[in-house]
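Many introductory courses stop at the sequence. We go one step further.
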Amino acid sequence: MSRTGHAGATRICGRRATAAAPHRGEEPLGKRQPEGPPPAPAVQRIRLRYTKRGRLRFTSHRDFQRAFERALRRSEVPMAYSAGFTPHPKVSYANAAPTGTGSEAEFLEIALTEARDPGTLRELLNDSLPDGLDITDAVEARTSGLADRLTASIWEMRLNGVSVEDAEKAVAAFNAADSVEVERRTKNGMRSFDARSAVVDLQALDHQPDRPGDKACAILRLVVRHVTPAVRPDDVLSGLRVVADLAPPVPAAVTRLAQGLFDEESGTVTDPLAPDREAAPAAPSKAAGTAVATAPEGAGSA
C-alpha cells in the first residue's frame, strides 16, 4: 500500500480510491447537529452548601452526583441542560472532599430555566436526599467566581487512642519544621511533596471522654490552604509520623468544618456565600412606619 501526494486520495493495489462524498441534501459528518430545539437558557443560578455526615462520608463524589441529580428530578427543579447529543443538567461542583471524610461545607451551583426561591428549593431537595446529605444553605448567585473564593479549609481530625500530650508534642514538632516531606501514591506512582507549607494553623485540642472508661482521644484542628498538589488531612498525619513518629492505632475520623476565602489579616476562613447575600437587593418595606421602627434592630445590615 502506498500513499500519493493528493489530499483525500489513497492508492491501493495500483488503483486510486477517494473518500465517499455525502449524498445530495446530506451534511458532512463533522457538522451534524442534534435534532429538536435547543435547550432553554438559564435565567437563574443557585449556590448550595451541603454536608456529608455519618456513613455518607464514605460516599464517592460520583455517587453523590447520582443522588443529587435524582433529587433534582424528584423535586421537579426546572434545570437548565447543556446542548449536544448527550445533554446533562448544568451542575458545577467545587472542590469536593475526598471519599471517607465528612464535611459540613461542600458547595455546588445549579442553573435553572425558571426562577425559584432559594429557601423553598433547599427544603424540596432535602426531602428527596438521604439523611446525611443535607442542604444547609441556598442563595441566588449574584457574583462571579465561587470556586475562586474557596482557597482554604478548616479540618478536624479525631485521633482515638492518642493522648493530648502526645498530640501536642507532635504538633509542636510539625509547626517548628520549615518543611515536611511526605509521599502519596498517585495513579502515576509515588509522589513526594511538602505538607508543611500549606498548613496555616495546626492545634491539638483536649477531648473529654463521652463515657467513663473511654480511651484517650486527641482532636487536631487545622487550617490548610488549597494548593497544588493538594495537601489533605491524611498528608498532615503522614507529616506528624515523619517528625514525631505519631501513629494513631485506628484511622482518624476527619471532617471539614468550613471552606472559603482565607483572610490573611484575621487568619480565618470566611463564608464564600456572603458576597452573594450582600449583593442581594434589600426587600422593600411595606410601610414607612414599619421601616423606621425596625431600623435599630437591623442597623448595619446591607
